[in-house]
Amino acid sequence: MKKIYVFCCSFFILYVSSYAAYLSNPIGNVYYKETDKWVMVDKTNRFDIKPQSEISTERASSVEIYFDNGSKLKIGPLSYYKFNNEDVNEISSTLFIGKIRNWVKKQSKEYKVITPAAVCGVRGTDFVVISDKDRTRVEVYDGSVSVSDLKQRNFLVGRGSYIDVKPSGISTPKINKNPPQNLNSSVGDSKMIAQNEIYNEISKSEVIKRAQQELQTAEYQNRKTAIDAFGYRVRMEEYITRPHDNQFKYVVLNTREKRFDFGKILFTFNNTLPADLSDVTKNMNTYYGNTAPDVYLTDVNSVMSNTVDKVTEDASGGKMIPDNPLNPSLWTHFFTNYSFYAAGSKDAGENGGKGKLFWSFSDSNNDGVYDSNEFTYLGGIRPTSSVIYPSGEDVLYSISNNTYSDGTSITAEDFVIFDDGNVAKYDDFKLKPGESKNDFIDKLNFERVYNSSIFSDKIDIVFSAKLLKDAGLINIK
What we know:
- It is a single chain.
- The protein folds into two domains: 19-175, Jelly Rolls (Sandwich); 193-470, no CATH class.
- Helices cover 11% and strands 46% of the residues.
- It contains six helices and 35 strands.
- The strands form four sheets. It has an 18-stranded mixed beta sheet that branches. A nine-stranded antiparallel beta sheet has the order 19-20-21-22-24-25-28-29-30.
């Protein structure tokens, strides 16, 4: 009897210290990610989840999470959520995009919700958190919530009030005239879920797993092995897929003997894309006609990474600008906002997963011109810049360097190379007798290499001209 008593006590101690959070009441399509595997949550009454696991919901879908201390939350449709941890002192969650409603048991452990723009901390309340791009809104229905922005500015939001947190900073609390949200409607922005994947899935296992899924529905695919500009054999795998009806995504994976690099670019348009993607891509930068094209590029989100370090570019507000507003014949694409980020392992969590902001542009006067006073830079002043052509200006190899006032530097090397690794010259573009433009383009590759003072290693990506040509991103006419 004594042995049985000791066993039962040991089991009880193990159980109460495990803090077993679980999912319940899934509606629609709810997905759960543990390590590198996404699975659909079935309709069972209980589904245990572990710390660092992620949950996503589709349109008209929702799910509830119950915590060990009696608190719970509900995840609304089109949301991307991460359960960070529950221990003796704290429950911690991250909401990347979408909405969650939280019911926190009073007089319990600290309860924290983190978004790309804010941190919310409470002890006993009922509140909603909404995350959309860089904006966070917190609505409090009972109790109070302490809300901080990324600069540690803080407000206490009381019952019946709400607060907004934007890139420019946190606002003061305001009276909320809207009733409490039940999250049953389709909320959020499905496009932002695709953007979050671009910014945050950079481990090799995550990238390969998603590629295995997306290759099954890819619109364009290309696989080849070539030699890079440094003499190393690289296996390239590229594809283009459509996450949503107004988006397409280009992905390239590079595998060498001792490294793995990848790039992803998400293109978002103002309207539904046509069946033939090249009908849009061939006119994406310039368009000839008396009226602007019906479909044009509005946003680009990209990442290049060696799975630790990364470079992220974020463009928005895309539009077509006429050469002559009164009698247009040529339309040129222009982004109203553009930002360039880079991150080593220490910077990966900055700016919602994008990294450290190196420079940005905002067309504040809306004139469609890149004015010098519309740029901002790391350290506050324009960096020292240089561009050189180490092998001569007739060779398609250049090195660009920016060094910022705080000492941070970043260098980009660009090559146009053939499959055998030889760097192309301008004279090489003269076609040989019997050689077609298609055959010539199919032998060409582009290589971009990033080095930075904040990186642990370089980022080195080779991608083919062939796939870009097939998708209309390179016009050979």
